[in-house]
Amino acid sequence: MPPVIAIDGPSASGKSSTAAAVARAIGAVHLDSGALYRGLTVLALDLADRSVPAIIRAADQRGLELRRVAGDLVPFLDGRDAEPRIRTPEVTALVSEVSAQAPLREWVNARLRSAVQGAQPVVMDGRDIGTAVFPDARLKVFLTASPEARARRRLIQRGEAPDPARLEAEAARLAERDHLDSTRAIAPLRRAADAVLLDTSDMSFERQVGAIVRLIRTTLQLP
Ligand code: CDP
Description:
Layout (H helix, E strand, L loop, with lengths): L3 E5 L6 H12 L2 E4 H14 L5 H10 L3 E5 L2 E6 L2 E2 L1 H4 L2 H10 L3 H14 L6 E5 L2 H5 L5 E6 L2 H11 L6 H20 L12 E4 L5 H16 L3
Parallel strand pairs: 1-6, 1-7, 2-4, 2-6, 7-8
Antiparallel strand pairs: 3-4, 4-5
Helix pairs in contact: 1-10, 2-3, 2-5, 2-6, 8-9
The structure holds cytidine-5'-diphosphate.
The site of cytidine-5'-diphosphate has 16 residues, from helix 2, helix 5 and helix 9.
């Protein structure tokens, strides 16, 4: 099995963009596990019956699967890249509820584990990668940032002005999702005991990517 680098952390901590840049820097494959939970949520939203068996049936029928696009493993649905469809506010509002269901977590985990093959290292980001999916990952990083910094980044990412009212509303939405993700019964969001904690509140994107790349090079003894 190739080395796995787990990057976990709360909503909008910058995991996915950081993990993608880190993977590019070390020639690894990037896999954003949240994208699969978002893919299942797209299916749930399309169903009248949102029961777990109905969602799993829809995933098989509509072919929700990971495919390699450049250096990333991304979710495909109905034979095309699901990316634009998984980032809507409707999906974001429902995804924590969907991802709290044990059989759906097992469905995702089976796909995450079978995606790790070949010789190329895999950088995987999520909530439970270092604690539940790959407890033996070669390196675990727990990425965090203050609620204010995370809300600001999310607004800027969406092209919205980070004025005080928007910042407050976005921080409240993030806090609600963090609460749901941290208090669920199965694989809650938490830092693994052996994860390196990186608070990026006052770090530039380049610095946080550089810090993780250095950690990986040391741990994996890469040139
Ligand atoms: O990018 P953002 O921080 O908004 O979240 P995401 O990584 O796209 O994940 C969306 C949601 O999927 C999270 O809020 C969790 O409820 C769930 N998730 C999870 O339960 N376990 C993971 N390994 C990844 C995501």
